[in-house]
Amino acid sequence: MIPVSSETVFKVALRGDTLLTSPRWNKGTAFTKKERKAFGLTGRLPSRVNTIDEQCDRAYDQLRSNDSPIGKNSFLQSLKEQNWVLYYSLLSRHLTELTPIIYTPTEAEAIANYSHLFRRSEGLFLTFPDQDTMEEDFLEQTRGREIDLIVCTDAEAILGIGDQGVGVGTFIWHISTAKSAIYTLLAGINPSKALSVTLDVGTDNEALLNDRLYVGWPSRRIRGVEYDKFIDKFVQLVRKYQPHCLLHFEDFGVSNAQRLLELYRNEHSVFNDDIQGTGAVTLAALMAAVGVIKSKMADQRYVIFGAGSAGLGIAKQVRDAIMLADDVSREDANKKFYLIDRFGLIKKSLGPSKIRPALQEFVRSDEEWADVPTNDAGEVELLEVVKKVRPTVLIGCSTKGGAFTESVVRAMKEGCERPIIFPLSNPSRLVEVDPKDANDWTGGMALLATGSPFPPAKMPNGKDYVIAECNNALIYPGLGFGAMLSQSRRMSDGMIIAGAQRLAALSPALKDPDNALLPDFEDAPRANFEVAVAVAEQAFKEGIQGVSWSKEEAKIKAKERQWTPVYGRYEYDEHGAK
């Protein structure tokens, strides 16, 4: 259990109702008798002093009285607005149960209804028409604060539900603050040093534009040069005033996500979870699977079905790992990948109108596909790709439920003994294949990981095969914490690969091949701590850290920097913290 109290002493300048309404400092009924007298709380609280254990039990009982996920979500948001320590302590005690409530999938429903649920603003809103005051608005929330983490979004590509305007970035179920909360919950980032930012550049969602209760800027999305200038103005403010923070890009549209990452990744420590987080956790699962079959990453043939931000991010992350781990040239590593999007296999004859610039490295020649059947539109479909390539790895990021048919899976099994199949699309109704079916169609030989949780599949010998969940939260908090810890000038490919390697080393399947390729979500805090240390160590190895201590101190410093949800002892000081 989490300890009841900490020896840390805080000098606090707040008193009375002001203290009780500060979520950072409020203890509720856990204020001691001495603290109640010192801070003018004796008449404002009932008599009994509760422990954090008792408070969590009471809060959990109240939570369970809500029948719907959205109702539980709303209760947890209210709790967070009152008391950070109690909120994070409760979550940490019921990690597997409550993470889906504060994060995916429940926040998708809340985001879609945000304007109608609005109660209290949280985070920073920077709006396109008000950009002349952007610096003033930014400093209003950050002046005098040490910020370790900024999570920002323009809300164009939210969790499979698309453009949601400022339907995000405010309540805990909304994406910027949800990501910040996961950083705190799983990596120990101090919530007072995190800032969520919504970049309101308008929306193309007709329902929101026609909704009289919509709370964002009711205008079409700004694009092109004006958009780029607005984003750049924000990024330069971060670089100027918070040079050592991690800037986390979240749910930017496919036309901007990779482009912005490439534009700024050498200027500041920036990270895109949709691209790099998805790529890193998938890479870790792949490394574990390759370890099970006692092979190498460079010896695999990869088909990626769905070439959006996630699919492309996975391809590049795995490609980079092949180059680094197996000493393969970039050109040769690219040739191991076959990407398929809505136009079919990415090959040269599709032309520039159908091939995004970011995909150019993975374009296949038409000559090698001259003898392969095409559909009525002249496109090479998934089954024909599988038959020709005989892939050892099949990854789905398409949101096309059932796309990995029995014919596709059986054709893959004919080409390799232990097919590695990762249907990663979310939510579960959009998964490319039910892992139970993939297990059955391969005679229990498939190595499986999914994007949503699934129950174990039965092996031919009657044993349960545990399905790994490729949950970004197993790695992105640790990647970010490692960058913050080392104050790295940038988030390098080497740092991400080092984190993925450390997560893969924790795979239960390496001890028992019938077990999951990735740790259980209950182990996410430990996994992220190990990832963070590996990332910081790699930053030292590359010489891009911003702190003066040595690589050997990484684990000690990581322990020291982690915030834990425990109450310290308060002493009143009019010059103390507010």
Automatic annotation (TrEMBL):
Keywords: Metal-binding, NAD, Oxidoreductase. The active site is at Y103 (proton donor), K179 (proton acceptor). Residues 275-540 form the Malic enzyme NAD-binding domain. Its cofactor is Mg(2+); Mn(2+). Divalent metal cations. Prefers magnesium or manganese. One of its GO terms (cellular component) is mitochondrion. GO terms for biological process: malate metabolic process. Residues 80-265 form the Malic enzyme N-terminal domain. (S)-malate binds at N426, N471. GO terms for molecular function: malate dehydrogenase (decarboxylating) (NAD+) activity; metal ion binding; NAD binding. A divalent metal cation binds at E250, D251, D274. The keyword NAD applies. It comes from the Eukaryota. Belongs to the malic enzymes family. This is Malic enzyme.
